[in-house]
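--- STAGE predict ---
source: upstream dedup step, 1 unique chain passed
mode: sequence only
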Amino acid sequence: MNDPLQPLTAMLVSRELLTEDTALFQLALADSRGVGPNGMNHKPGQFVMLSVLGAGEAPFSICHAASDVPILQLCIRRVGRLTERLFELPTGSKLGLRGPYGNGFPLERMVGQELLLVAGGLGMAPLRSVLQAVMAQRDRYRRVVLAYGFRHKDEMLFGPELIALGETGHLELHFAVDHPMADQPFTAMHGHVGQLVESLTLDAAETTVALCGPPVMYKGTAQMLREKGVWPQKTFMTFERRMSCGIGQCGHCTIGYRYSCKDGPVFSAWEARGLREAWEQEAYNDASQ
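--- STAGE serialize ---
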């Protein structure tokens, strides 16, 4: 029997800088015959455990929808020792990889609905996997709206890709920036993403929401969506913690009586109503180690 804590060997295929401190990493399993994260067998919202020899192991959200190409994409921000090391490694370097883990977003429950994706900062990375999966079967969904907030234009993730999608007419795009700049190549509200969502006109009874970003935006945005008439059972958000094992054994990622790694990281606002810790800023780890 395979040891679930034993990582498989993966290779760094490429690293593309998206912003000054954030990059898109592409990985491939050294032996694609093994059972593990390979870019083809995950659900939007799931994560992997990535390890670097001598630097440790950390969880990272998968930022693309499953495809026929055996390449795994992770969007990683340079914030600590492990990620610093990742940004130094040359292509072809060997890494450890486990997963995919977590429940992911319930896309089947979104079929036939209007979709509102709400991303704040690095939260765009896991929501990109939702967006790609939805766009691949666009006729199964009604109106699809992305509300994306970030500090300024140079921190926008996947900008050309998102703008190109918006130009197809299949995606309604709305941006909010904290610091508008004269040369930004898009129209954006000056403010935060919660204000942006509040300004949208929604068919609340027919809308399902996927929300991902810093915890400071969760409580107010979820409450505001509820006041707009969106059911908390149809508002889904990711609550990431210090996930160490990824399989519910170590207990590091518990939120109340739930495990973020095993029961989440995606919870509905209805499920999260009794998880007080889920809404607390200090308990949060954005999976960027």
